[in-house]
Amino acid sequence: MATDDFNIGPQYLPSAPAGEAQPLDTRPRTMFRAPFCADIDALDADVAFIGMPFDQGTLGRPGARYGPDALRDAPRAYSYSDPYGAGQAADGFFDADAGDELLRGVTMADCGNVFVTAADVIHNFNRLAGVVQRVAGRGAFPVILGGDHAITFPAVAGLARYAPLDIVHFDAHLDYTHHYNGAMLTHGSPIRRCQELEHVANITSVGIRSVRRGPYAEAMAHGNAVITARQFRERGPEAIAESIPIGPNLYITFDVDVLDPVQAPGTGTPEIGGLFYEEARRCLTALVRRANLVALDVVEVAPPYDVSDLTAQVAARLIADILAARFPSRPAPPAGP
Ligand SMILES: [Mn+2]
After folding, report:
1. pTM of the prediction?
2. How far is the CA of 263 from the centre of ligand 1 (A)?
3. pLDDT digits (tens, 9 = 90+) for 64-80
């Protein structure tokens, strides 16, 4: 048979339903394509995303200011509304392992980015703290999209309503240096600054593998728990999650450099010997299921150093995983006629 003897002709081609294809994707460029919220005082959603395009705290390689929009552009696993289906919001996404839709019926909104002004760290931090406070005041679950790790301090400062608040900190680094040549608010000190807040109780750092003796000794002296990346791998994700003390309220700060740079190269300070996605997912899921998680930040995604958007992809996927563990799916609506 000659190669041009066969053509897929009309007899083989089903026709798509007429009039159903849309010429334009008019959804806003938001996290998970959730609705955009222009007025926090009218916010009405289970989950609210807040972008913090700030890297003025970075000691080494900058670029985390591009993190929030990279996270918004990344998700392929989950879209809040189905562009090819009915366009219905909060349908959730099908998970073959769960045999069900995750995040079905969980409402979300993207509140945009905090206005970050050049060379004005205190004002930028006050804006974030105020926005987080207002979002939480609306009863929504804040997800702060960083930004370098310095932003965790103002984010946590805005959550005094959740006293006593425990922090579980996923990171390659301890971020516990008191100051860098007098600078107190860099991304090398946010956990130390959080420890000084009245409403913060227990702090557990997980995945640590690059730390100096001084800050490590100070974290120990302050009663913090430190779990190294090697201990994590030896004991396993679930055992680690079970070992973390759980109080009434939990905040998770997830520095993407806790992951191995093979899976998450797009960050300013990569460290070899980190967690892989599946390990992180299992630990986070087990932890969130046994705690009252009140807010989350994901920081240090730095797109200029990324490869194939890997880092933004894995970070966005972990946000969906954490939210799915935090917010069980609601019953499916009855099938239509
Ligand atoms: Mn960090």
Report:
1. 0.94
2. 17
3. 999 999 999 997 778 88
